[in-house]
Design goal:
The chain is α/β, with parallel strands linked by helices. The chain has nine helices and twelve strands. The protein is 38% helix and 25% strand. The strands form three sheets. Strands 2-1-3-8-7-6 form a six-stranded mixed β-sheet, sandwiched between helices. A four-stranded antiparallel β-sheet has the order 10-11-9-12, with helices on one face. Strands 4-5 form a two-stranded antiparallel sheet.
């Protein structure tokens, strides 16, 4: 089985609807390519006890916990302190990060608020940020990143090669002009024969109004995925419809 992961999206602005999360897909795709299974995503508020409790719970359940949001210079950027508490270490100035930020911003602009971004849990390893210098960090199995997509992507791209993964997630898809109800029984039988794979059916509608369904098999065992894909093709064919490989065109 591949290493498992959970993503914690931290921010009142996500829960209120003010901001739409733009990070889940990027992180999920990157983890899939690296053979790390993203098994859960949670969205939680900027509340210290909630963050501490959630990080502590999730880091015991998963091999990796990724967080986004709450590591800037303002009063509600409390993720670093909360992660330190959840892991059981103090928060302290990370000297190298402090020097880099001071050099990047200049002493006049490197005020007390911005200095908060150089406070990391004791023993944390900074995650490089090529966009705005202020680091994310990893401690134990928790990886803390910014919420701003461009900064998060910079951090994630720096972090991912350092993590041990497994075989990449692979998939096979077939689609046809059929309805889910017609395929449901046959698809369930295939799922029962391949319990470690993720089989899904996804209805779609073409621009001309014609409707159909796409059947997808995903997993970390490429041989099993290929076998399940062939079974899906045979299922569609047995219903008197020509199976078309891949996902339908938008």
């Amino acid at each position: 089985m591949p290493p498992t992961a959970c993503l914690l999206i931290i921010g009142n602005e996500i829960l209120s609807g003010r901001t739409q999360d733009a990070n889940i897909r990027f992180i999920a795709n990157g983890l899939a390519r690296s053979g790390i299974a993203l098994e859960e995503v949670r969205v939680i508020p900027d509340k210290a006890k909630r963050i501490v409790d959630t990080v502590a719970t999730c880091r015991a359940m998963f091999d990796h916990v990724f967080t986004t949001g709450g590591i800037g210079p303002t009063h509600d950027d409390i993720t670093a302190a909360c992660v330190a508490e959840a892991v059981g270490v103090p928060l302290e100035i990370h000297e190298e990060s402090y020097r880099k930020l001071e050099s990047y911003l200049g002493k006049e602009k490197f005020n007390k608020a911005r200095q908060r971004m150089a406070w990391l849990p004791r023993g944390a390893v900074p995650i490089e940020n090529t966009v705005s210098i202020a680091p994310g960090f990893s401690i134990a199995n928790v990886h803390v990143m910014a919420g701003v997509p461009s900064i998060m992507q910079s951090m994630f791209n720096a972090l991912l090669p350092t993590l041990e993964g497994g075989a990449p997630l692979c998939s096979v898809a077939w689609h046809a002009d059929l309805r889910e109800g017609t395929l449901a029984e046959g698809l369930e039988a295939i799922q029962n024969d391949f319990p470690t794979l993720d089989l899904g059916s996804y209805p779609f509608e073409r621009a001309d109004g014609r409707k159909g369904v796409s059947l997808v098999a995903k997993g970390y065992d490429s041989d099993q995925v290929a076998q399940a894909g062939e079974r899906i093709r045979q299922l569609i064919d047995s219903l008197g419809v020509t199976p078309i490989e891949g996902e339908p065109a938008p």
